[in-house]
## 1
Amino acid sequence: MKSAYNRVFLLSSIVSVVDWLMFNAILFLCYALDIWPYIDTHIIVFSDWLIANISYFVAQSFAQITLHQRSSTPASVLRNSSRAAVLFVIVNAAILGMAHMTVPGFWRSLLVAALVFSFTSIERLIMRKLIKRIRSTGRNNMRTIIIGYGYMVSKVANVMLDPLNGYKLLGIFTLEDIDEKYKKLGDYGDVMNWLRKNRVDEVYIAINTDDDDELKPLLKLCQHRMIRVYYIPRSHSTAKRKTKIVEMGETYVMAQYNEPLMSVKQRLKKRVFDIVVSGAFLIFLFPWIYIIVAIITKVTMPGPVFFKQRRTGYDGKNFNCYKFRSMKVNEDSDKVQATKDDPRVTNWGRFMRHTNIDELPQFINVFFGEMSVVGPRPHMLAHTEYYSEKIGDYMIRHFVKPGITGWAQTHGERGETKTVDDMARRVEKDIWYIEHWSFWLDIQIIFKTIRDVLVGDDKAY
């Protein structure tokens, strides 16, 4: 009988072949539609086909297919499809240029990228759904046991109990009484004999021992029977964290938070993007927007066009955050959030808030490095002082630069925070963004923000 991991490799191969066939189908479609300008006929020249396929494999090496992985989500599938599509066009153009062949123009390349993204996304989402359905019937499942019990174990066990995730939790070994939805296989002394009599693919250990020698017989048996071993952390503080293992000398430590932007390369990439986007906006669009906003503001309410407020930024340092003024001049602007039907907000101000026009001056903050296009929204100093005492993880959101828009704002956490729980949910999403940051996640958030602006947001007041 094939091991579960052999079945995983087989499934991965099938997925890769199907994806490659879909790509070539798209390639034939592009030729048929005469999108590839370096082909005079609808007959594919072998060299062109070979270059396109080499470009495809290079792109896939940087944007791997993950739809078959048990932790995959539709968002991750779409994210990887978009990466692969863009990288394919770039790599293909580079190879064609080096080979002194005709390189597709910008709009044709954009159309090809759109076709690759659209068709591969549909194919991958269908494949993912099909794999989930197969796993829900009990096939391609990973047979697992857990040694130990507690809060973190229940979180892991609940994932394994969902048939769509492709696990078969055989049971738990523990001295404690456990929830009736889990199967108790015995206590710690029964593990070795049970493993010798049953087939298991993965063992999850969630027990603390004073002496590592106590685990050596178990680990040796697992190695002998080709069983993978994983450790479940006991700390509740890691329950929702994307922790990171860090090498320290000859041992390893676990960071409580994963921070992709600790990398100089990733931070530089984000900063260059911020400078290019904010610079282009301030040069080409902002002057015209400012003239229109200034005229209407002066006509509808007395006072300055800009509103400047001290807010908490990167590393807990304060900065002046700029906005177009949407309220009447008042003494509570640095203390009290805007609420629904707030009498301080004018009709023109309400329109600016609803369309996010009031936030546009923050591109000035972005250009000078105080903010980023995407990141946790900066809060007024009074809120930082209050919520940092109420929410333990609150200040973590300042590990990165604040943004004009963010993951929390595009996922239902915009506007007034009436309770501490409201702010806690926002903070949790901000920390998720910090731990899962990628350039493509920023692009996704920007497009989601644009969509929200066009559609409208009920919480924008």
Note: The first strand starts at residue 142 and ends at 147.
## 2
Amino acid sequence: MKKTIAFRTLGCRVNQYETQALRETFADMGYEVVPETERADIYVINTCTVTNVSDRKSRQLIRRAKLRNPESLVAVIGCYAQTRPEEVSAMTEADIVLGSGEKGRLPGLIAAYEREPRKRTEIRPFDSESAYEDMGGVTAMASRTRAYIKVQDGCDRFCSYCIVPYARGPARSRALPDIEAEAKSLLAGGYKELVLTGVNMALYGAEPRNGQDPQGRARPAAAVPDLREARNNNEKQQGYGIHVIVNILNRIEGDFRIRLGSLEPTVIDAEYVKRLFCAEKLCPSLHLSAQSGSNRVLSAMNRRYTREAYLELAEVLRARDGGYGISTDLIAGFPGETEEDFEESLSLLRRLDFSHVHAFPYSKRAGTPAADMQGQIPAEVRSRRSRALIAAGEASARAFFERNIGAVRRVLPETADAGTGLLEGLSDNNIRVYFEGGEALCGRFADVRLSGMMKDGMAGTFLR
């Protein structure tokens, strides 16, 4: 009888991708993969630690798994395990505790546990020599049309509020031949949209890889301290950056599109994104985390760019396509943020029509420099400012939708609502679009004229 294994994932798209890679690995090994809500022999909890709430949710899921089957093996993997190994290992429900850079070792550790049932904690500290851990890629996703490809891991920007560099380690790039092979496999499987994802994709190729670049070519041994500097030396001429991946995928034959999840303004600037414009299959949408509209706060956050540089970047994108979809994140109540600083964040939302704004109050994260900064903002002030940012973000999104009324965008329908008959899918500029059309259109590109706001996106009329 097959052993059953269930997975539960918290956090980012990178975590989601890695869970899918593990799911496929265990299925190939003969395990029966069952929903996390069912009784299973093995539970794998892929954790997140970006906030204290994430840690708490991780602990709840660990306990819940053991309650569901007290005889089960519970493996806790990922970022929470990496940053709080003693805390996780102290939980009696956790049988295996595995860090972010060790996920590929999970099958072997489960086999070892079954031979000798004792708690196993495997946390490897990251260092400058840490290599990208290739988990074998994926062949399928929950979506029938959109697939994610992980191209990079880690970050060395060390924003003062962020725990991610400690949880994910330094920037590490996946080999280009592996990325291309996975893309071709997914396209052969019928996927029409490839979404590139990573912890900080703009750092792709910026780290030393045992004397080689991601293409296997010889390169200088010295690390590049800032990708902006790389544009001014011979490494720039050799072609490092996310545009290298995009251009390679763009040359693959077939009717499909490429989407970038996000690029960090801490690394890129207007000149960087211009190198992406030659790829006609690349979607005109991008997530650019602003975090604040105040130069003083950006400096305290160690964000390495200015409000003016961010606006220039957005203006270059909109000059390329007036309907370019730009989404962002903003933190309310960062330590030391004054009312004047906060007003600059509000004015950024009024200045740019963002397709989506994720605004949230600052949350103190132990282990980050910001947690010990002077000028911590009271909770009620952070909450008030967050609510104001959310309201301004909604107004900004409405303005973006209005900007697109009458535009014809290329939409990839994913589902058809049985009740209304409306098709639902994403436009190239990342608007959720609802329009009439037969179910046969699902999974095929459609030209749709956008007519007005509807639900969480826009209504449209199918043209062809």
Note: The two ends are 51 Å apart (CA to CA).
